[in-house]
Amino acid sequence: MIIPKDILNDYRVAQSGADPKFAIRGLSTVENTLGETYVLGDERAVFLYSGKLGRGKDCTALDYSDITEFKIVEQPPFNFLRVETADDILTIKFGSFDLEKLVQIDSLRRSPPAPSTTVQGAGSESTADVDESCGLPKIRLNTDSPIPMVSPDPVASSATVESDPVGVDTVTLSCPELTPMIALTAILHTMIYIDDEAADEEMQNLKLLVDDQEIINQGLLYWRARGTTELVEELGRRLNESQKRCVVANLIEIAMVDGVLKEGEQEFNRYVCSVFNIDESVFKSLFDVLLLKNNISVFMTDFD
């Protein structure tokens, strides 16, 4: 999983140079709207960096003593984390593949705090080890050595740390090398998980488009490792114009498989088009063609 450098540096400053003992990315803002939330912390506090796609993240730092409710609500294929304080109620959406990590974070939150240890700051050449006893992902930065990580997902078996070309520290779950087909399946997974009703029809549409389960699995893994914002921006740099238009057309088709283009799906399409520099007129043309293609109701009448 990628932790953007500005978020990691902010956390280190707040925590006197210490690295987080856990890091997980939510599929929504803390208001459960379209966006992302990075959840970082240790056995004493949790930091929620939340914001809309492609924008900066606002930080909410909470000591566990300030949390009145920390509840994981399972609604497959999603899990929702509800964090309540005296002043606010925050709700973050996660994939079902994140359940084990969420349970482990809750377990760490409930455990007595460990004695403070000295951790070298971000400017050090040394790495910051993370307690393994809690079973959470170890985060070891600025090194090329493999590190162990909890792998609740069958397509995720190991983790490495690498230096990302756009200037972020990266913890990956065996992140595959990006190919155009993996890029396509990765971003289509994003659309499938946009709203709170990941329909079976949407996944079936993906399988009809890409008849290779391994590529579909690798696309899911790549998206989980990179995150939505990083993925879309990377594809904006690497795809050619024909590939970008094909991506947008397939995003529209998957979004419309249930017959409705929901607000979150529309917002995500606008974001992708903005990053891909695709004009609104091109998007409308693609939308109109797909709307016509899928409108088989015109055949429900007799011949004239």
Q: Uncertain regions: pLDDT < 50 for 5+ in a row?
A: 116-173
Q: What class, by secondary structure content?
A: alpha+beta
The tally of structural domains comes to: 2
Straight-line distance between termini: 58 Å
* Contiguous helical run count: 9
CATH architecture of the largest domain: Roll
* Overall average residue pLDDT: 80
CATH superfamily membership of the largest domain: Pleckstrin-homology domain (PH domain)/Phosphotyrosine-binding domain (PTB)
Shape: elongated
Describe this structure in words.
- It is elongated and about 75 Å long.
- The model is unreliable at 116-173 (pLDDT under 50).
- It has 9 helices and 11 strands.
- Strands 1-11-10-9 form a 4-stranded antiparallel beta sheet.
- By secondary structure, it is an alpha+beta fold.
